[in-house]
């Protein structure tokens, strides 16, 4: 064990032996926030708080806690060992003061009459601390720290009570209740704070403060002492609340009426707009259907006219073709008749030539043999020429072979007759031969000319027939194309007619749907109006007395809820606030609500009557 520990134990035993013979400690309830202090029961310090023997011993080692400031004075001067949480060795002639620097709380209550002569009770909490221990230890005797703290708390409490009473006397009841912070707490801080916060030093001849710093002041409660005045105040507010409630109800009724009127107006406008729209749609659909019907009828008429025009053109074409065919047939008949006439002429000439030849042959028969030989030779040449003429005639006649054959038979018969008369014609053979040659040449020329003309006529007829055939084919193709186009146009018109009918059906369906929508909207708005009227009737049927009775019936349930056992509650107070203040405020709010409903509720027993 060290020397310091032995000395501390000896000093403790000495102090206990010194105090044991003359002083007894008792535990009494202190006045600072419900805390209990040990106090002396007798002796010259009877009733004062018990001190820590380690701090008040006459000599020995003294040590301060970390939240305490130790001041060691020797020969009237503060030693350098003084400081926060310091320790020193006290000699019998030294003075040691231990100043607590921790936060201290102080609760005060002040009763005062306001400027309206209404008694109120103000309860507040102050939080302070010793900021400059070297100044504070000179204001109070911190040789006994517990007593010094108690004296400082009592002094501050009296200062707070006096200042609060002076402030409340100049305020109205409304300002006391509503302006706690700025009306009371801030003024207390502004008034007492500069007094406590000192700026003096040891070398100063005069110090300006106490070395105490006031952190905050909170007004916890402002209570009206007179229950009658409090009820009258609540009655005024209740009347104001009732007036506001009735005004709100009237405003609600006006709003509901206005909304109903607006809804009816909107409903009427929507119904009129829907009817107008339905009427316009129906009119537009009818006009569209009529226009499309007229258009289809016009197109059908145009198709009929085009078809009739086509039929007429075809009829004219057929008639023209018939006329052309008739002209071709007449021309062919005329050509055949001309050919037959020419053939008849040729046959006549041939017959005459054969008669002449027969005469010549008969004459030659009477002539000499030489003449007969010559005659036969001429006959052969004549037969050769006749054969050539026959071949030419056969090529020219083509379709008249039968007639030509009959003509040949007749020519043969005439030739036989001519041969019978050839003897007589021998004398005129030379002359006739010459004439025959000339006539034959003329006949050949005439036949050639006729053949050429016939070929030209045939060519012209073929060209005309080909042209007519081509025109007929072109006309037929054009008629077929026009007929196909007309058929397509008719099909298109039929499809458009079906589309028009479908559109008309769709328009009628849309009109029906719009009418159904309008009816549904009317029904929905009617239901809403009925529901609004029913709600308004329900609200109008519930009187304030029924509301008060319902509230009065439910208040016991709220009270029963407050009577339940809540168990252990841990509350942390901030800035010195009342930890159970919110419970009291809730109970007071429920009681005030019950009073506003007209129930007779006794006033709180905690509020004393006004003086």
Automatic annotation (TrEMBL):
Question: Where does the Band domain start and stop, copy by copy?
Answer: 63-253
Q: What is this protein called?
A: SPFH domain-containing protein
Alphabetically sorted, this entry's keywords are: Coiled coil
Against Pfam families, the record matches this protein to:
Band_7
Region (Disordered) residue ranges read: 1-51
The taxonomic lineage of its organism, from the top, reads: Bacteria, Pseudomonadati, Myxococcota, Myxococcia, Myxococcales
The subcellular localization recorded is: Membrane
Q: Which domain of life is it from?
A: Bacteria
Kindly list the residue ranges recorded as spanning the membrane.
none
Coiled coil spans: 332-533
GO CC aspect terms: membrane
What topology in the membrane does the UniProt record assign? Single-pass membrane protein
